[in-house]
Amino acid sequence: MTLVKFTNGQKNNALKTPYSDIFGSLFNPEPYLSKSLISRVPAVNIGETDNEFQIELATPGLKKDDFKINVEKDQLTISTDKKVETTEEAVIRKYNRKEFNYNSFTRTFTLPEAADQANIQAEYTDGVLFVTIAKKEEAKIQAREISVK
Questions:
Q1: How far is it, in rounded angstroms, from Cα 49 to Cα 78?
Q2: Contacts of 67 (CB under 8 A, 6+ apart)
Q3: Is the Cβ–Cβ distance between 130 and 113 less than 8 Å?
Q4: C-alpha to C-alpha distances, 56 to 25, 41, 63, nearest whole angstrom
Q5: Which residue has the higher pLDDT, 38 or 143?
Q6: What is the model's pTM?
Q7: pLDDT-derived band of residue 81, with 50, 70 and 90 as boundaries?
Q8: For 7, how many CA atoms within 13 A lie in the half-sphere containing its CB?
Q9: How far is Cα 8 from Cα 133, in angstroms, rounded to an integer?
Q10: Of 9-13, 74-78, 83-87, which range is least confident?
Q11: Could you give the CA distance from residue 29 to residue 124 in angstroms, rounded to a whole number?
């Protein structure tokens, strides 16, 4: 096993201690914050039962009207584009602050041939978007007993 020292791009620093790498990453969270702010694609769970396919997207803080769900050919696209504007004014200190926040994402899923594109339903409950795609009748697994001759 080889021990590799993390230098964080700094070389030959005379003031550097053996613990600089550890404490530097703890007390300087900007690289981690910027990555988390850029990546706002919701987590997805995909499942299948005998009668349907299920997609669950974790999207807290949104409303059901924020979603746009489209089906084109064999592509299911779920997207949202939400703009939040906050204005704050203080009389005592005489300052104004206005912040804009844009939340948007697009997720595209390729539907299998067994999916019934005419029978897709969506429901938004407790911060989770549930999309249910029914299977075509000929694609459903039919249980039957086979007799031995």
A1: 21
A2: 59, 78, 79, 80, 122, 124, 129
A3: no
A4: 34, 13, 15
A5: 143
A6: 0.61
A7: confident
A8: 6
A9: 47
A10: 9-13
A11: 34
